[in-house]
Amino acid sequence: MADPWNYAGPVTHLGSGTGSVTLVDESTFAISGSAGDIVPGAAQGLFVRDTRILSRFEVLLNGVAAEPLTAVTTDPFSATFVSRNVPAPGRADSTLLVFRHRHVGQGMREELVLRNFGDEATACTVDVLIDADFADLFAVKEGRVVHDAHHGNVSTQVADGPTAPGTDDDPASTLTYTYRRGPVARGVEIQAVGAERLAPGLLTFEIVVPARGEWSTCVEVAPVIDGKVFAPKYRCGEPVERATPTERLAEWRRQVPQVQTDHPALKQVVARSAEDLGALRIFDPDHPERVVVAAGAPWFMTVFGRDSLLTAWMALLVDPDLARGVLQTLARFQGQEVDPRHEEEPGRILHEMRFGDAASLSLGGGSIYYGTADATPLFVMLLGEMRRWGVARELVDELLPNAARAIEWIEHFGDADGDGYVEYHRATDRGLANQGWKDSWDGIRYGDGRVAEAPIALAEVQAYTYGAYLASAHFAFEAGDTATYDRFRSKAAHLKANFNRDFWLEEKGWFAVGLDADKKPIDSLTSNIGHCLWTGIVDEDKALQVAQALVGPSMFSGWGLRTLSSDNGGYNPISYHCGSVWPHDTAIVAAGLARYGFDGAAQQLIFGLLDAASAQGGRLPELFSGLDRGELTVPVGYPTSCSPQAWASASPLLCLRTLLRLDPWIPYGKTWLSPNLPEGIGYLKVEGIPLAGSRVTIEVGDEVPGGVSISGLPPDIEVIREPRHPSTAV
User: Fold this and answer.
1) What Cα–Cα distance (Å) separates residue 34 from each residue in 81, 95, 126, 138?
2) How does pLDDT run across 153-195, given as a tens digit for each residue?
3) If you placed Cys at 96, which of 85, 171, 418, 545 could pair as Cys (CB 3.0 to 4.6 Å)?
4) Using CA atoms, how far apart are residues 464 and 212, in angstroms rounded to an integer?
C-alpha cells in the first residue's frame, strides 16, 4: 500500500452528474451525487473511521434511476434529496416524486418517501442496490481501490426478523457485510422495513402508492467493528431532533456570539464560519467533555496538530472550549519516545491522527504521525493565548508540564544542530519531505523555481518558536520564577536578532522563506513571512518593506494572498502551495499587518477574502486559485479542496478580531480594543464574546458614544483604547 502521509498524486473523481453532496458528523461522512445515490467506481460512499462501509447505495424505480431535482442541506449531517420518476415515453411530466431524508452519524439513516400527485394509484418496484468494499479512506481518495480494497474477504448474510427498526407486524430485514484482513474485522449491518426480497447487494420493495398519497420505508446502516455493532446516532422510528448531533449543534448555535452589522457579506460569512466549525467538531467517547476540531471534510475528518491549533486560536472569539479540547487531546498524545517510523520524539506534538484498523471509536485507537515542525511551538503559543484570554486557568496550569516538554523538543530535537533555529528533516523515506504548513513535496522553492531540500529552517517556524519562548517567559513571570523568565526572554530576544540578521534579504526587501541545509537563504517571496509579522519577530524597521512586498500585485490576487509570488520561478496559480490562495494564510497575514499598524493593507486582504466567500455561497474553501481578480469575476476553485475546512472556516473569525483590534491580556488586567473599520462598515456589534470568564459585547459605530463600547468585562480589567504595540508579545 502507498504511504498515506506522503501521497503527492491526484484525488480520484467524485462521480458524474450535476455535483456531489457531502454530509459529515465527527468521523462519519457520506459523499453522494445530487440525487443521493452513491455509485460504484467514484470517490463516493459512507465512511466511518476512515473506512468506507457503503460503496454503493442506489435507488431505482422500475429499474431506472430517478431524475434529480434538488438537494437541500439544512444541517451539516442531514439532507433531503428530491427526484422524480422518469416520465413515461411521450409524456413531459411525472406524477411520482421521490424524497430521500438522510442523516449521518456513526452510520446512516435514510427515510425513503414516494409521493403520488396523480389521480390513479401507481404500482412501482423500488430496488435499492447496495455494496460494501471496506476500502481504506486513502485508497478511495487516491483511486487505489481496485488494487487495495479487497485484500481481505468480504461476505454477506441475509436475515429476516422482528428486530429494530421494524415491528412485529412489519418486521425489518437485515443485510450484513463482513470483512476480514488478518486480525482486522469490519462489517456493516443494513436494516430495512418492509422489503419484499433481500439478496446480497439488493433490497426490493413491491409497492402501490395511492392516488394523492404516499409510501415510505426506512433504511438503517450501522458499522460493525470487531464483531460489535455500533448503533447509528439516528435510528429509524425515533425523532431526529433528539439525536446527539442535532442537540449538540443546537447548543452550539445558542452559545456562539451574534454579529450585527450593516455589511451583509461580513455577517453572512461569519455566520457560515461558525456553522461550519460546529460541524467539524469531534467528541472523543473516552473523554466526551473534550471537543476537538477535524481538519476538513471530506478527506480529513480527523485531528491534525497544526490545523487544530491554528483553528482553535482563530476561534477563541466564539468558543474557547475548542482550544481547551485541542490542547488536552494533543497533550494526551504528545510524543514519548524516539520512533522513526512515525517520526515520534519526546515532547513532539502530532501532525496527524488516522483511525485505520482501530478496534474502537476512541481517538486513542488510531495511528499517529508526528512529522511536523510547527505544531509543537504552536501548542505552547495557544496555551499562552488561553492564559491571555483569562479562560480555563486550571487547565492551563495542568498543561504547563506539557508545554515544558514541548520546549525541550524545540531545544533538542527541533534544533538538532544547535544553531538556534528549528529545522526539519524526515526520519525515513515514508515521511513528509516538507514539514511546515506548505507540506507538499514542492512547496518550498528558491526564487528561480528550484525545489529546496531538507533540512530546512522555515521562517514561520522560527516565528512560532519566538512566540513559544515568550509564552513560556510569561508563565514563569506569573509563577514568580525570575530565572526562568529571564532565560526565555533572552532566548526570544536572541532568536529575534538572529532571525532578522540571517533571514533578511536586503537587496529584495523581504525575508527568506527559509534557510537550506547550507544555511543559505531560500530567496522566494512567499506568504510565510506574513506569519512572522503575526508573532512580532520582525524588526520594526523592516516591517514596511515586508508589508509592501506582501500586498504588491505579484502576491495579492484581489481575492487573497498568493502563497508564492507570481514573479517567482515555479509559480502556478492552480498548484497546492505554489501560487494558490489559502484563506487561513491570508487571515494570519492580515492580522500581522494590523499588528504593525498597516490597517489599510490588512483590510485590503480581509475584504478580498469576504468577497471571495460571498462569491462562493458565503463559505471559504480550503484553498482556491491564485488567478488575478482582474481576469475573472469569481474565484477559480481548486479541484480537491476540502469544504468545509477548519482553518478556512475560522479565518473570518480572525479577520473579525483584526477589525476590532481586540487583544486581551487578562492576567495583567488589560485589554486592548481599538476598532478601525473601513468605510464599507458603518456599524458592527459582536455580542457574547467569551473573555475573562464572562460574555462580552463590543459595539462600534458613529451612533455609539465614543464610537466604541464594551460591556461585560470584569471591573478590574482596564480597556486600552489604542492598538497593541508590535513589540508586545503574542
Assistant:
1) 7, 20, 19, 23
2) 566 666 654 344 444 455 568 899 998 887 778 899 999 988 8
3) 85
4) 65
Q: Judging by beta carbons within 10 Å of its beta carbon (0-12, 13-18, 19+), is residue 483 exposed, middle or buried?
A: exposed
In DSSP terms, 31 is beta-bridged to 22, 45
Using DSSP's 3-state secondary structure scheme, residue 302 falls into: coil
What is the per-residue pLDDT for 300?
A: 85
pLDDT at position 162 is 38
pLDDT of residue 170: 53
Q: How far apart are CA 187 and CA 200, in angstroms?
A: 14
Q: Does the 4-242 domain belong in CATH 2.70.98?
A: yes
Q: 29-32: long-range contacts at Cβ-Cβ below 8 A with a sequence spacing of 24 or more?
A: 29/104, 29/297, 29/298, 29/301, 30/54, 30/102, 30/104, 30/108, 31/298, 32/57, 32/81
Residue 539 per-residue DSSP state: -
Angle between helices 305-314 and 375-389 (to 10 degrees): 20
Q: What is the 3-state secondary structure (H, E, C) of 164-193?
A: CCCCCCCCEEEEEEEEEECCEEEEEEEEEE
Residues 6+ apart with CB under 8 A from 457: 421, 422, 423, 514, 515
Cα first-last separation, the chain: 43
* pLDDT for residue 250: 83
Residue in the structure block whose three cell numbers are 479565518: 651
Among residues 309, 313, 426, the alpha carbon closest in space to that of 375 is found at 309
Could you give the residue range(s) of every CATH 1.50.10.10 domain in the chain? 289-646
Amino acid 345 reads E
Residues of the chain with pLDDT under 50: 1-13, 15-18, 147-152, 161-168, 359-362, 730
Question: Where do the CATH 2.70.98 domains begin and end in the chain?
Answer: 4-242
Options 1.20.1730.10, 2.40.70.10, 3.30.310.80, 1.50.10.10; CATH for 289-646 is 1.50.10.10
Measured CA to CA in angstroms, residue 97 lies from 65, 94, 213, 363, 657 at distances of: 12, 8, 11, 42, 47
CA nearest neighbour of 490 among 470, 518, 461: 470
Residue tagged 512580532 (cell numbers): 536
DSSP, res 413:
I
